[in-house]
Amino acid sequence: PENLMDVVARANATRAQASELSDRAQHLTASAARSLIVDLGMTVRDAAQLLGVSHQRVHQLVHQDQARSA
Q1: Residuewise pLDDT in 10s, the chain (70 residues)
Q2: In 10 A of CB 63, how many CB atoms?
Q3: Rounded Cα distance, 58 and 39, in Å
Q4: Is the pTM of this model over 0.85?
C-alpha cells in the first residue's frame, strides 16, 4: 500500500539522519575530550563525567584522535 511505502521511506530517511548525527556526536565528543584533557589538563575520569561517557571511552577517543593526527 502507498501509505506503507511512505512510512518505510520516512523510516529509512530517519535512520540515515540518525547515523549522520551519531557520527557528528562522536566527532564532537572526541574533540571535546581531547581539549578537556590536553588543553585544560583535566583527568580522564573528570572529562568522562562531564561528557557523560565512561573513562574508558574517553581514553579511546583521545588515543584514536592522537593516532589520526600522527
Answers
A1: 789 999 999 999 999 999 999 999 999 999 999 999 999 999 999 999 999 999 999 999 998 856 666 6
A2: 12
A3: 15
A4: no
Fill in the amino acid letter for 55.
H
Q: Helical H runs in the chain? A: 2-34, 44-51, 55-69
- Contact of 63 with 54, CB cutoff 8 Å: no
Decide: 35 and 61 in contact? Cβ < 8 Å: no
- Rounded Cα distance between 25 and 1, Å, is 36
